[in-house]
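Summary for the lay section of the report: proteins are chains of building blocks that fold into shapes. Here we show the chain for Holo-[acyl-carrier-protein] synthase and then a coded description of the shape we predicted for it.
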Amino acid sequence: MGVGIDVVDVARFGAALARTPKLRERLFTEGERDLPVRSLAARFAAKEALAKALGAPGGLLWTDAEIRRGAAGRPSLHVTGTISAVADPLGITAWHVSLSHDGGIATAMVIAEAG
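The coded shape description reads as follows.
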């Protein structure tokens, strides 16, 4: 149904988090907030990629998307609230997410699959 990709400069993202302490609460769920900056940058890239996969609609809350780590380390995307309200009518039944961070850059790709 949709594909999104995004990249984030890890140092610049870390500086933004340091400059604006409330930013962690606005962008990340309670389960994500205490991760290292490189992991937060990758998760933010995934949330941006998610928005792109949905066609970049307005009104999405970043905390309505959570990237979780499975037992084998594979990331998975879980959506609620504003994101579900956009995805459900589109028939999206599965999410695929890939994260990476290297060389000071975090990147993520999200695929929204319709049923």
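Put simply, here is one thing we learned. The helical segments are 10-19, 23-27, 37-53, 81-87.
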